[in-house]
Amino acid sequence: MIVLAYGRSDRIGPEFRFSALNLIYDSETEDSDLITGIAAYDTRDGDMTSRIVVEKVVLNRDAETAVVYYAVADYSGNVTKQSRVFAADIEDIDKEGDQSDVIEDELESVPAFYFGDNAEEASTDGISADEEEEEQ
Fold it and tell me: How confident is the prediction along the chain (136 residues), in pLDDT tens digits per residue?
Protein backbone atom coordinates (compact mmCIF):
# COMPACT_ATOMS: atom_id res chain seq x y z
CA MET A 1 0.00 0.00 0.00
CA ILE A 2 2.79 2.44 0.82
CA VAL A 3 4.53 1.62 -2.46
CA LEU A 4 1.33 2.39 -4.34
CA ALA A 5 1.00 5.82 -2.67
CA TYR A 6 4.68 6.57 -3.31
CA GLY A 7 4.24 5.59 -6.95
CA ARG A 8 1.44 8.15 -7.33
CA SER A 9 3.24 11.01 -5.59
CA ASP A 10 4.57 13.93 -7.61
CA ARG A 11 8.35 13.69 -7.84
CA ILE A 12 8.91 15.77 -10.98
CA GLY A 13 9.83 19.43 -10.63
CA PRO A 14 8.49 22.27 -12.74
CA GLU A 15 10.11 23.22 -16.03
CA PHE A 16 11.42 26.69 -16.91
CA ARG A 17 10.72 28.27 -20.28
CA PHE A 18 12.80 31.28 -21.26
CA SER A 19 11.96 33.86 -23.92
CA ALA A 20 14.60 36.09 -25.46
CA LEU A 21 15.18 39.18 -23.34
CA ASN A 22 17.42 42.07 -24.31
CA LEU A 23 18.35 43.31 -20.84
CA ILE A 24 21.53 44.85 -19.50
CA TYR A 25 21.95 44.33 -15.75
CA ASP A 26 22.72 47.62 -13.97
CA SER A 27 22.17 49.36 -10.64
CA GLU A 28 18.49 49.99 -11.46
CA THR A 29 17.63 46.36 -12.33
CA GLU A 30 14.94 44.85 -10.08
CA ASP A 31 14.04 41.18 -9.55
CA SER A 32 10.81 41.80 -11.46
CA ASP A 33 12.89 42.88 -14.49
CA LEU A 34 14.92 39.68 -14.27
CA ILE A 35 11.80 37.50 -14.20
CA THR A 36 10.33 39.10 -17.33
CA GLY A 37 10.17 36.58 -20.16
CA ILE A 38 10.35 33.50 -17.93
CA ALA A 39 7.57 31.00 -17.32
CA ALA A 40 7.43 27.82 -15.25
CA TYR A 41 5.09 24.92 -15.79
CA ASP A 42 4.49 21.71 -13.85
CA THR A 43 2.84 18.62 -15.31
CA ARG A 44 0.63 18.20 -12.25
CA ASP A 45 0.17 21.77 -10.94
CA GLY A 46 0.13 23.73 -14.21
CA ASP A 47 1.42 27.30 -14.43
CA MET A 48 4.00 27.99 -11.70
CA THR A 49 5.24 31.30 -13.11
CA SER A 50 4.04 33.33 -10.12
CA ARG A 51 6.24 31.17 -7.85
CA ILE A 52 9.56 31.95 -9.60
CA VAL A 53 12.12 33.68 -7.39
CA VAL A 54 15.54 35.18 -8.04
CA GLU A 55 17.89 33.36 -5.66
CA LYS A 56 20.96 35.51 -6.32
CA VAL A 57 22.90 37.49 -8.89
CA VAL A 58 26.63 36.96 -9.35
CA LEU A 59 28.66 39.58 -11.19
CA ASN A 60 31.69 38.67 -13.26
CA ARG A 61 33.54 41.95 -13.73
CA ASP A 62 36.10 40.55 -16.17
CA ALA A 63 33.43 39.19 -18.53
CA GLU A 64 31.07 42.14 -17.78
CA THR A 65 28.19 39.74 -17.12
CA ALA A 66 25.65 39.01 -14.43
CA VAL A 67 24.59 35.41 -13.82
CA VAL A 68 21.07 35.29 -12.41
CA TYR A 69 20.02 32.18 -10.48
CA TYR A 70 16.29 31.33 -10.42
CA ALA A 71 14.27 28.76 -8.48
CA VAL A 72 10.68 27.57 -8.56
CA ALA A 73 8.87 24.98 -6.45
CA ASP A 74 5.65 23.15 -7.20
CA TYR A 75 2.97 22.41 -4.60
CA SER A 76 4.55 19.02 -3.82
CA GLY A 77 7.83 20.68 -2.88
CA ASN A 78 9.80 19.74 -6.00
CA VAL A 79 12.31 22.50 -6.76
CA THR A 80 13.89 23.36 -10.09
CA LYS A 81 16.80 25.78 -10.40
CA GLN A 82 18.13 27.45 -13.52
CA SER A 83 20.52 30.28 -14.35
CA ARG A 84 20.70 32.87 -17.10
CA VAL A 85 23.51 35.23 -18.15
CA PHE A 86 22.98 38.90 -18.93
CA ALA A 87 25.39 41.61 -20.05
CA ALA A 88 26.23 43.91 -17.13
CA ASP A 89 26.99 47.62 -17.00
CA ILE A 90 29.88 47.34 -14.52
CA GLU A 91 30.66 51.08 -14.66
CA ASP A 92 27.09 51.97 -13.58
CA ILE A 93 27.10 49.29 -10.88
CA ASP A 94 30.40 50.57 -9.46
CA LYS A 95 29.15 54.15 -9.52
CA GLU A 96 25.76 53.43 -7.92
CA GLY A 97 26.65 50.42 -5.81
CA ASP A 98 25.16 46.94 -6.01
CA GLN A 99 24.49 44.17 -3.48
CA SER A 100 25.19 41.28 -5.90
CA ASP A 101 27.81 38.66 -5.22
CA VAL A 102 30.97 39.33 -7.19
CA ILE A 103 33.36 36.83 -8.72
CA GLU A 104 36.72 38.36 -9.57
CA ASP A 105 39.44 35.94 -8.47
CA GLU A 106 39.16 32.38 -7.16
CA LEU A 107 41.98 32.94 -4.64
CA GLU A 108 40.40 36.00 -3.09
CA SER A 109 39.50 35.42 0.56
CA VAL A 110 35.90 35.46 1.69
CA PRO A 111 34.92 38.28 4.09
CA ALA A 112 34.59 37.64 7.81
CA PHE A 113 31.41 36.20 9.25
CA TYR A 114 30.47 37.47 12.69
CA PHE A 115 29.01 35.30 15.46
CA GLY A 116 28.50 37.47 18.52
CA ASP A 117 31.84 39.05 19.49
CA ASN A 118 33.93 36.47 17.59
CA ALA A 119 34.91 36.87 13.95
CA GLU A 120 35.92 33.97 11.75
CA GLU A 121 37.37 34.24 8.27
CA ALA A 122 36.67 31.54 5.75
CA SER A 123 37.72 30.76 2.23
CA THR A 124 36.16 28.58 -0.42
CA ASP A 125 38.33 25.56 0.44
CA GLY A 126 37.87 25.62 4.22
CA ILE A 127 41.31 27.14 4.96
CA SER A 128 41.25 30.39 6.90
CA ALA A 129 42.45 33.51 5.13
CA ASP A 130 45.49 33.66 7.45
CA GLU A 131 46.47 30.07 6.61
CA GLU A 132 45.96 30.81 2.91
CA GLU A 133 48.38 33.77 3.09
CA GLU A 134 50.99 31.59 4.84
CA GLU A 135 50.78 29.01 2.04
CA GLN A 136 51.46 31.64 -0.64
Answer: 444 445 557 789 999 999 998 999 999 999 999 999 999 999 999 999 999 999 999 999 999 999 999 999 999 999 999 999 999 999 999 887 655 555 544 334 333 333 333 333 333 334 434 444 444 4
Query: Measured between alpha carbons, how far is 68 from 84 in angstroms, rounded to an integer?
Result: 5
Q: Which of 102, 19, 114 is nearest to 58 (CA)?
A: 102
User: Residue 35: helix, strand or coil by DSSP?
Assistant: helix
- Residue ranges per domain, the chain? 2-103, 105-136
- Are the CB atoms for 122 and 128 separated by under 8 Å? yes
Contacts (Cβ under 8 Å, ≥6 apart) of 16:
38, 39, 40, 52, 70, 72, 80, 82
**6: amino acid identity, one letter:** Y
> Domain 2-103: which CATH class?
mainly beta
pTM recorded for the entire structure? 0.66
